[in-house]
Amino acid sequence: MIRVLFFGALADIAGREQLDLTWQPSLDSPAAIRLALAASAPALERALQQPQVLVARNLDQAGWDTPVADGDEIAFMPPVTGG
Amino acid sequence: MLSGKQFQRYSRQLMLEDVGESGQEKLSQASILIVGLGGLGSPAAMYLAAAGVGRLLLADPDRLDLTNLQRQVLYQTADIGGGKAALAATALAALNPEIRLEAIDSAMDRETLDQHLPGVDLVLDCTDNGQSRQDINRACFAHRLPLLSAAALGWEGQLAGFDFRAGAGPCYSCLIAEGSPEPVASCATTGVIGPVLGIMGSMQAVEAVRLLVSGSCSVFGQLRRYDGKRGSWFRVGLVRQPSCPVCGNPRVET
Ligand SMILES: [Zn+2]
Predict the structure, then answer these.
(1) How far apart are CA B161 and CA B150, in angstroms?
(2) 10 Å Cβ neighbour count for B244?
(3) Which among B244, B3, B246, B158 is positioned nearest to A9, based on CA atoms?
(4) What is the set of domains in chain A, with CATH numbers?
């Protein structure tokens, strides 16, 4: 299983803060997880495509191509830029 | 040596074992550059001035606008139209006349940063745009100065700490690469809740005090995210990117 966490404005769009996905070898990166969401949650997938969305894997900063394994927790955080 | 008045003024923090008279003297000898005196810079500057940080450099090229007052708590309605750096220096001097306040009303590009960073101990990035954040990151890395970088939007805020004193990353550009397209959303287009900025700016002040009195702070190498709508916090470890153009390994010519 892969636990996916959505923060703030992304949780608003997802309608949830957490989503558990059954593990399958094709979900091998945050980018692949994003793509897998396109069919069921197109607005969420679009929001994840915007620039400067931050990704974490198991509480450490990650990239869209960071390898993901069964049991991982992937967090997506929307950009915040104001001051 | 602290005067009797100073003992009184700072008594409620002097009581703390971690601060004491020696910590207060460290604060009074410290110099902090605050870049951006908006929603983050307002609370950060107010708390640091109140705490007796000896010298604050206050940088902001903008003039105060009516739409700023919902979140930029350093200013009054009658201040509209005035330059923020000078207004901030005046307000903070009234709060604490014992500290040095320097208003800088020019934009903080690389050249201006290089000019003002010598003699500074810590930089707070309280700006509202990506280019400034990258310029401040590069300058702090080059000058080996610690950097506390905060941002907020909507109900959310974040704070990242970078300890460049040893000349090593991770840096802001490891987190958000230089040249990344700017997100569509900004405070002007999406809006922001004032006290979310207050929390993040206050956190910058907490970490600044902690760093100045103890030499370290808990946010270095970390990203902290706050979601005011759900009241939740999240902590992410930053990762140095070997390919980072700012802090990455220098290319070896062969
Ligand atoms: Zn870097």
Answers:
(1) 9
(2) 19
(3) B158
(4) 2-77 (3.10.20.30)
Residue of B35, B68, B134, B156 to mutate for A, most A C-beta atoms under 10 A: B156
Q: Choose, from B126, B140, B171, B187, the residue flagged as catalytic.
A: B187
Cis amide bond preceding B170, omega within 30: yes
Quick check: is B187 catalytic?
A: yes
Convert the pLDDT of each residue in A21-65 to its tens digit.
999 999 999 999 999 999 999 999 999 999 999 999 999 999 999
A5: chain B residues, CB-CB within 8 Å:
234
Question: If chain B, 254 residues long, is cut into consecutive pieces of 10 residues, what is the mean pLDDT of each piece?
Answer: 94 96 97 98 98 98 98 98 98 98 96 97 96 97 98 98 96 95 81 97 98 96 98 97 90 52
Q: Which pair of structure tokens corresponds to residue B245?
A: 């153009």
Sorted by sequence, the CB contacts under 8 Å of residue B160 that are 6+ apart come out as B148, B149, B150, B172, B175, B219, B222, B223, B224, B238
Given CB atoms, is A77 within the 8 Å cutoff of chain B? yes
Q: Which residue of A has its CA nearest to B72?
A: A83
**ipTM here:** 0.95
